[in-house]
Specification:
This protein has 15 helices and 21 strands. It is an alpha+beta fold. The protein has a single domain, classed as Rossmann fold. Helix 5 crosses helix 6 and helix 14 packs antiparallel against helix 15. The chain starts with a helix and ends in a 10-residue tail after the last strand. The relative contact order is 0.16. Its EC number is 2.1.1.320.
């Protein structure tokens, strides 16, 4: 009854040279980008005869790895104009010079996205139509509401504890959490149990989240006012809210519900390429003309241990014909931290992201102003993201604890539909203007549809593209709580 009441209640909507081989190559874009194939970006990789290492075949200069580019809507763009290096570019070149050699793709990615002074996410709002990409919570309030339904159902399976940590990793503008709290605000027993924790490293986004959650400062006059979360309250449902730079900083000891939407895709990945001497890690170096380039490591790197672990989890036929592989050590480590929390205190985690139910070959991409650009072009001005390896999440969670179970992945369309988004859109359509109705239908298609919307009558370059099958959902829960909705 509680679930049906939430789904059917109309609510107000929010406003709508070091011995390395040289190789060159190249949160959801909004329309007009096409569906799934565009996620595989790349250009042929070449081995340079001028930097050929001992033992490599003499014909390696002519060998290429063929990569399908047919799915690209916007070809990569380069900044060819002469310009002075940005502070981030100087910083990256300084690291490479200090090391006396190249850095891993993962380190490059981490600096580009989260460098404290010039990282892509740190000092600005990159979300929405005016930003660089659009995420599901920005598409429609229904996404956050359905995640709220999932969280409330899990809370009931947990035995309705009176105090729960509700943690969101990488909350963006705070839209998902705001819609979750607003949608569930009528269910006081649930919302009053929630201690909201936002894991966010960007000061600019922290301020934006505070505004989105309609937070106010509340003086704590108690004698033991040591918990920082008691001083900030979200007026959406009266919940205490606190911010943390990492999951480790979230206070432990309570049952915990963790939400990770489009978070794993931004974690740094290590890329490996098969060569005659075995699997070599792809690195980022500086050329003679001072631009960045990709090179291959001449010997195994520490990250090869994660590659070997990933191969141990894969079937032989799955990796037999691979020429390139991506692994995400930070994703594996984060999953194990999540699993330990859930094992110790109860609760669960919901992970929704674009990715594969298998080994990821090569997916790292750069998006600037809703267009694809070269990964090494103007670092810090474009978002970098990669497909999420969902089996790696599953195996990482199970490896560290026998007290958790992993369910999924299932498609976002299956996940949202099973939670009742169809009923929710019907309820909202009963109390809205024609313009709002069009926005609802468009948002609904983007969340659950596959490909271009068949009902669209507007400009061709603005046709809604469905995310329903490109995004996958996975849950990690404490075994004592049974199978979570809607994975039964």
């Amino acid at each position: 009854m509680m679930l049906r009441k939430l789904l059917l209640t109309p609510t107000s909507r929010r406003a709508l040279s070091n011995g390395f081989f040289f190789s060159s190559r190249n949160p959801t874009p909004s329309p007009p980008l096409p569906p799934a194939p565009w996620r595989s970006l790349g250009s042929p990789l070449f081995f340079s005869t001028s930097e050929q290492a001992e033992g490599e075949p003499s014909n390696s200069a002519s060998s290429t790895i063929s990569i399908d580019r047919s799915g690209l809507y916007n070809p990569p763009e380069h900044s060819h104009e002469q310009s002075s290096d940005s502070e981030l570019v100087k910083h990256l070149k300084g690291i490479i010079k200090f090391r006396g050699g190249p850095i891993s793709v993962a380190e490059y990615m981490e600096e580009v996205l989260t460098n404290p002074k010039a990282g892509f996410y740190i000092n600005r709002d990159v979300f929405g139509a005016q930003g660089d990409f659009i995420t599901s919570p920005e598409v429609s309030q229904m996404f956050g509401e359905m995640v709220g339904v999932w969280a409330m159902c899990l809370w009931e399976q947990m035995g309705q504890p009176k105090d729960v940590n509700l943690v969101e990793l990488g909350p963006g503008r705070g839209t998902l959490m705001a819609d979750l709290l607003h949608g569930a605000s009528k269910f006081k027993n649930f919302t009053e149990s929630l201690h909201v924790h936002m894991v966010e490293c960007s000061p600019a986004l922290q301020q934006l989240q505070r505004k989105t959650l309609k937070c106010i400062d509340k003086a704590d006059t108690s004698e033991n006012a040591e918990n920082a979360e008691s001083s900030v309250i979200s007026t959406l449902a009266g919940n205490p809210v606190s911010w943390h730079a990492s999951l480790e900083q979230v206070p432990s000891g309570l049952p915990t519900i963790i939400i990770a939407h489009e978070f794993y895709d931004a974690l740094p990945v290590h890329q490996f390429q098969k060569a005659s001497r075995g699997w070599c890690e792809k690195m980022v170096d500086v050329q003679e003309d001072s631009s960045f380039r990709f090179v291959l490591s001449p010997q195994p790197t520490p990250s090869n241990l994660y590659l070997l672990k990933r191969f141990k989890w894969a079937a032989p036929e799955e990796i037999a014909n691979l020429e390139q592989v991506e692994v995400c050590p930070k994703g594996m480590d984060l999953t194990q931290k999540i699993s330990k929390i859930i094992s110790a205190y109860g609760g669960g985690a919901l992970i929704i992201d674009y990715g594969l139910n298998g080994v990821v070959s090569e997916s790292l991409q750069a998006i600037r102003k809703h267009k694809f650009v070269d990964i090494l072009d103007d670092p810090g001005s474009a978002d970098l993201s990669a497909y999420v390896d969902f089996p790696a999440i599953k195996y990482s969670a199970e490896e560290v604890s026998e007290d958790v179970s992993v369910y999924g992945p299932m498609t976002q369309s299956q996940f949202l539909s099973a939670l009742g988004i169809n009923f929710r859109v019907e309820a909202l359509l009963q109390n809205c203007t024609d313009e709002q109705a069009e926005s609802l239908r468009t948002g609904y298609w983007r969340l659950v549809g596959d490909g271009e919307a068949p009902f669209w009558e507007g400009p061709d370059d603005q046709v809604p593209i469905g995310m329903g099958t490109r995004y996958l959902a996975m849950a990690i829960v404490n075994k004592k709580q049974g199978v979570p909705v809607p994975f039964q």
